[in-house]
Amino acid sequence: MNSLTVPCFFLFFLFLSVAAQDIAVPVLDSDGDELQADQKYTVTHVTQVAGTKGGLSLEYSGPRCPAYVTAEARGVIGIPMIFHPVNCDEGPIYESATVYIKFTYNRVCTEVSAVWKVDDYVDESTGLYFLIAGGTIGDKRSQLKIVKSLKGDEGYSFVSCGLSECTSIFEYSDKNLTRLALGNDEDAASIVFHKYLLTSTSSIM
To answer: Model confidence over 68-92: pLDDT tens digits?
Structure first.
């Protein structure tokens, strides 16, 4: 291990020594294993069995950038993602811990990074702040958290806490495109994480 690398478990024990009353709980994937900072994952929706959404990807909404973080159609895996916890490079991802999320590639707007961020500007037609590519590790607009599903099911939800207050992330559909945006807890998307395997294809059953 690189001497400059700060493992997450070290920060976890440091956190406990400062605030023993708070117990850090690891995020679990679909196999019941702890989500790891050095692995690739895809997601599916808790409600996918009922029929509508697939994984997450990047798409245009108009003729050019930005590239929006979008939900794919049912059966499509989407783009694998990697989680980067704040101040550590490896180890488990914990619930409500600040992370940066990066897709493994960006073929839509290649001139910007594949790190997620909350757009700098509110969308005039919807009044919403959407999640787009082009973020930076260390930028508050790229800071997100993974929490237990805000709908009370067995999945998880994304929350943005890099601005003035924590805001849940939901899926807004229009123009045959479903984009991730800041919204209300009752509308928050519920997702499940899956290890991305080299044998994965572009579709899921």
So the answer is: 999 988 778 899 999 999 877 789 9
What is the value of pTM for the model shown? 0.83
| Mean pLDDT of the 13-38 span | 75
Of residues 8, 20, 77, 67, the one with CA closest to residue 44: 77
Percentage with pLDDT > 90 across the chain: 53
The domains located in the chain, with CATH, are 23-195 (2.80.10.50)
* pLDDT for the residue 100: 96
Cβ neighbours of 33 (radius 10 Å)? 14
3-state secondary structure the chain: CCCCCCEHHHHHHHHHHHCCCCCCCECECCCCCECECCCCEEEEEHHHHHCCEEEEEEEECCCCCCEEEEEEECCECECCEEEEECCCCECECECCCEEEEEECCCCCCCCCCCEEEECCCCCCCCCCCEEEECCCCCCHHHCEEEEECCCCCCCEEEEECCCCCCEEEEEEEECCEEEEEEECHHHECCEEEEECCCCCCCECC
Round to whole Å and give the CA distance between 145 and 161: 7
